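Predict structure. Chain length: 358.
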Amino acid sequence: MKKHEFLKTAERYWSQSSYIVVLLLTMIGYAITITLGGNTFKWSHIVAILGSQNTCIVGTIALGMALVIITGQIDLSVGSALVLCSGITIMVFNLTGSILMMVLAALGSGALCGLINGVLVGYGKIPPFIVTLGTMLIFRSVTLSVVRDIDPSIAGSSSSQFAMITTLEKYDLVRMQFGVGKFSLGSFQIPYITIVFIVLAILFSVLMQRTAFGKSIYAVGSNEKSALLAGINVTRVKISVFVITGLMVGIASVLQACKIGNVTPASSGQSYEMYAISAVVLAGISMSGGKGKLQGVIFGTLSYTTINFIIVSIPELSVDIQDTFQGLVLILVILVQSVAPAVRSRIQRTRKHRQLPE
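Prediction complete.
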């Protein structure tokens, strides 16, 4: 195989399946780290990754973030929106004891947060970075104000947090059986909340690949002017992806309530917007918009969680420096994404110079 053919094959494979390569490398790195620490890498380590808060909660948010990024936008408010929606979710559960009402409250509050962002971006024509930076501050501030003033019998706690009341009839079903429970098939176990995330990722993948709406999202991200000429309502698409992201935040708030049982507005959800963006980047979705596969979010989220596990498992690294390594990995992946188009361009120039057939 000639050099230019090898480069073309490598570039094409990376652009289509980079998220698989990244996950394999991170898993190998984690296995090596565990082994060097004197332990044996087991299936239980993988189950811990699958059931991690970063995998299920951040991964669910990352599905919505992926749509926003594919359209060439950004949403910095998802971490604060998660705190707000989780607080509402827990309060409704404490007041009603109803799982249905809890889920409806989560979806409704999440959709409203997304709609606020979408309308300001779509109709207000305000840059999404500015809009979501503002709502990021607003959502968390409102939640902090509520948790300090509301009756502890509704918040479920008197320590500046929202907590599910453990004496309610449905608490064990929601928290113990679903939230921390696992589906077992022989020796194979996978957390229920992970199954929810994977099912959502599959549905999103079908949505993007098989529906006109999914194709319109890619069209808007690829070339907004061309999308307008093709008859696509760009404003509606932009608003809709923010609303969908809000719905994903709502679902994530249910998972937060079920898995953790509480939310602390002052600290919960901190930097989740960055974690979600990291998962999307590791999934091979271009930050410039218009490119990427939604099934990659599963791999990207698992890669991000595995990287976090690797960093935490190295005792020599202090807590203060751990985010540095996460940031370096993120920059490295984006750098590789940037290099791939340059490689493609070089191949094309070489072919033209040598007058080689396509």
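Summary: The CA atoms of residues 321 and 357 lie 51 Å apart.
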